[in-house]
Specification:
The protein has eight helices and seven strands, in the order αβαααβββββααααβ. The model has no long low-confidence stretch (mean pLDDT about 85).
Length: about 160
């Protein structure tokens, strides 16, 4: 993380936090740390908070943290240590994904159900059905979900 980045103070702050639990910051606290007002997209879209290769994403990831949750109604973000991973259980010698895990992957990537559906070449309703537990992803979809998880850096374990 470059000290010239406007998100460097956030990096520095998170780097100093013990990685034994979650760190919750209000949007105002993030603005105070960085000395910059958050863009409008940070106030309304999960994608801005995605754990990706953006300058803001690099700030928390380089510090060893990931965005775990964003609450737009109450205007706060929750960071978790990057060492904490999600567990995905095998089904028929292949990685199986529960609805909660599909939703976690989608939110981690900062995507809507429609965006994930587009990437998997399925309907948005299919993703919704997986997430609420009406159906489970079949083996071929589980493999695609695993590939997407690896592509976006979603931390998960099989076993």
């Amino acid at each position: 993380m470059s000290p010239k980045s406007k998100y460097y103070p956030l990096f520095k702050y998170l780097k100093q936090q013990p990685d034994s639990g979650l760190v919750e910051l209000s949007f105002v606290e993030v603005e105070e740390l960085t000395g910059h007002k958050l863009p409008a997209s940070a106030q309304i879209t999960r994608a801005w908070w995605a754990n990706g290769k953006t300058s803001q994403g690099r700030a928390w990831q380089d510090a060893g943290w990931l965005v775990d949750d964003v609450d737009f109604a109450n205007q706060y973000v929750v960071f978790r240590p990057a060492r904490i991973t999600y567990r995905v259980s095998p089904i028929r010698k292949s990685v199986g994904w529960s609805g909660e895990q599909v939703k976690s992957l989608r939110e981690f990537a900062g995507w809507s159900q429609q965006e994930l559906a587009h990437r998997l070449a399925v309907r948005q309703q299919t993703v919704s059905d997986w997430e609420v537990g009406n159906h489970a992803a079949r083996r071929s979809m589980s493999k695609l979900l695993q590939m997407i998880a690896e592509e976006v850096g979603f931390p998960y374990e099989t076993g």
